[in-house]
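Input.
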Amino acid sequence: MEPQSLSTRRERYEREFPEYKQPVEVGSFSLDSEQRFFNDRRKLRYYVEPDANPMFDLKDGYRDRYKKRDESVKERLDNLLRWVLENRSAVSSDQTMASPRALEAEFVTRRGRLTKLLTTPYESREGWLLTVTMFKGTLYISEVETEAARRERESRTERHEEMTYWGYKFEQYMCADDDHSSPDPTGVVNANEAFYTVVKTRLADHKLLFSNEVDCRDKDPAKDSSPHATSAPDKQRSNFNRFKLLRWWAQSFPPGVPRIIAGFRDDDGVVVAVETFPVSKIPDRIKTERNCWKPNVCINFCCDFLSIVKRTVTEDDPDVVYLFSYEPYRDVTFTVHRNSLYSFLPSWYVEGIIGSQP
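Output.
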């Protein structure tokens, strides 16, 4: 096999935006307060429009009503794989000699991996390690924590931990447990709880199936929202457009989330204003910014990465893992690992897929 690499130089991806099929939700699942999987919608929350002058205190409850998630425990793809096993009819392929895949999708992953790929041409601070394995014709993409990311996680300051809480707290102020109630900011903020949709779509000729965490849903199901709390952009409008909007767009575009609800806070963690950003309008907002990011560069890089994965990952074996590595300002490269610690498809999933085939 010839060594291959993928350039991250932006000018390589300055071409027409590829076809991206409208994402379709094919299912959903929930994680409870202990991160247990449920094949239902019990953790779905609903967006409630805030007052014009919210004055949300994001510090409230940090000391006494906050259950952190253990970030040293990496989920990989396990919960999505549990959903696949319980919903085979929604994602199975009609197997033929021409298409031997067990699943209809060519790629199975989480939304966060796609976000990393979309932002890579403009990422100058953090590298990544993506693991890919082929099983029954489908390519599964997971992630390994980099050494730099591990060091950063283990050395976080108390201020950083509190500011992480502020994001969860903002969601609590904005979201209700059902479509007939109001948000309850007096309750516990539990970072383990989550609601995910499972989405299928196609980017150029790449068929994708991925899980997507949904913070809340409007009473109108076409209006999913993604609430984010951030510092006031007036102090640094350029950085807001270059970095915040890039990440928000890259998180929201793949699953088709139509709008982002941004809470702008002061340095003391008090939300003083809330603004809605339609995701489809974000590219227009950054057009006047000099040397800013471009959506077509992001999506073309992602598309080319998936293409090189198809050409590179040739061994259909869950014990064979291709490790793709990116460091800022360098090309993406890969190495191959057999029966290693990088293997990530659990035996219960492999056996479940094999056992369900005719």
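Residues 10-355 form one domain.
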